[in-house]
Amino acid sequence: MNYKTEDNVLSAFGGESKANRRYVIFAEKAEKEGYPQVARLFRAVAEAENVHARNHLNAVDSIGTTKDNLFAASLGEQEEYKRMYPNFIEIADRERNDRAKRSFEWANKVEEIHHGYFEEALKAVRADKQLEEVTYYVCQVCGNTIKGQPPEKCPICGASASAFKEVE
């Protein structure tokens, strides 16, 4: 594949991925405002954007083995919590944008947790072992990801246990 085409495919992947997430969030807002059909439309288009993103990644053979994918995910999370978010936090603090700073701080802490989970999974896959079966819960306030039953209070943002959503 030509370099420009590969760049275009990866750019399209980024755009489709962002649109997917944006539309999922828009759907939640439409539901809260009493527009269930608009919410359904947003969810349908979000699913289509997900299909586009998957097709784009497949077009450049960017989906590796589980081992490759875990390694890439681990490196990505590490980059975020060690470099990206600390820089973003510093800038938000300097610009006195407390909401952005808090969002970055929460994400930074959670990305470190994700890095640990991916490293654990990578170690298991390299040893040709399965991960222990657990249920994951995600805090809907800060994104904290917990194995097993959620705590009474999220250690990152302080939300109650009811803020955690079980992941299937």
In brief, what are we looking at here?
The protein has 168 residues and is mostly helical.
Low-confidence regions? none
Number of strands: 3
Q: Strand content of the residues, in percent?
A: 5-15%
What's the number of domains? 3
Helix content: 55-70%
Largest sheet: 3 strands, antiparallel
Estimate the mean pLDDT confidence: 95
Features:
single chain, 168 residues, mainly alpha, Ferritin, Rubrerythrin, domain 2, 3 domains, three-stranded antiparallel β-sheet, 4 helices, 3 strands, 67% helix
Structure description:
It is a single chain. The chain is mainly alpha-helical and 168 residues long. The protein folds into 3 domains: 3-59, Ferritin (Up-down Bundle), CATH 1.20.1260; 65-131; 134-168, Rubrerythrin, domain 2. Helix content is 67%, strand content 7%. It has 4 helices and 3 strands; from the N terminus they run ααααβββ. It has a 3-stranded antiparallel sheet. A hairpin with a 5-residue loop joins strand 1 (136-139) and strand 2. The longest helix is centred in the N-terminal third of the chain and has 30 residues, at 3-32. It is globular, with a radius of gyration of 18 Å. The N and C termini lie far apart (37 Å).
Ordered list of secondary-structure elements with their pairings:
Layout (H helix, E strand, L loop, with lengths): L2 H30 L3 H24 L6 H29 L3 H29 L9 E4 L5 E3 L16 E4 L1
Antiparallel strand pairs: 1-2, 1-3
Helix pairs in contact: 1-2, 3-4
